[in-house]
């Protein structure tokens, strides 16, 4: 009986962790897409300073997005 209760307690945790991993992956894809747009917009910047700011911002966003995708996939593999 105790083993059955422990299994029931674990199921919601696994469900929530899987949901969180899928959410991380989706948000990572969205942020990565936005970062690519920012990096493309770098070429139409008016000044060198604006180009630098856009390039750095795009690179930081891309790093965050890729990190979220990787972390989401690692978490999903742990749960599966």
General description of the model:
The chain is an all-alpha fold. The chain contains two helices and no strands. The longest helix has 40 residues.
Largest sheet: none
Number of DSSP strands? 0
**Helical residue percent band:** over 70%
Number of domains: 1
Shape: rod-shaped
Strand % is under 5%
**Distance between the terminal alpha carbons, to the nearest Å?**
25 Å
Oligomer: single chain
Give, in order, the helices and strands: HH
Low-confidence stretches: none
List the helices and strands and how they pair.
Blueprint: H1 2-41, H2 48-79
Short description:
This protein is mostly helical and 80 residues long.
Summarize this structure as a short list of keywords or feature phrases:
80 residues, mainly alpha, 2 helices, 90% helix
């Amino acid at each position: 009986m105790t083993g059955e209760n422990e299994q029931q307690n674990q199921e919601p945790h696994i469900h929530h962790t899987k949901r969180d991993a899928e959410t991380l992956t989706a948000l990572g894809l969205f942020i990565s897409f936005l970062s690519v747009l920012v990096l493309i917009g770098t070429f139409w910047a008016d000044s060198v300073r604006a180009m630098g700011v856009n390039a750095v911002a795009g690179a930081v966003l891309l790093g965050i997005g890729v990190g979220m995708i990787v972390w989401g996939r690692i978490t999903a593999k742990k749960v599966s």
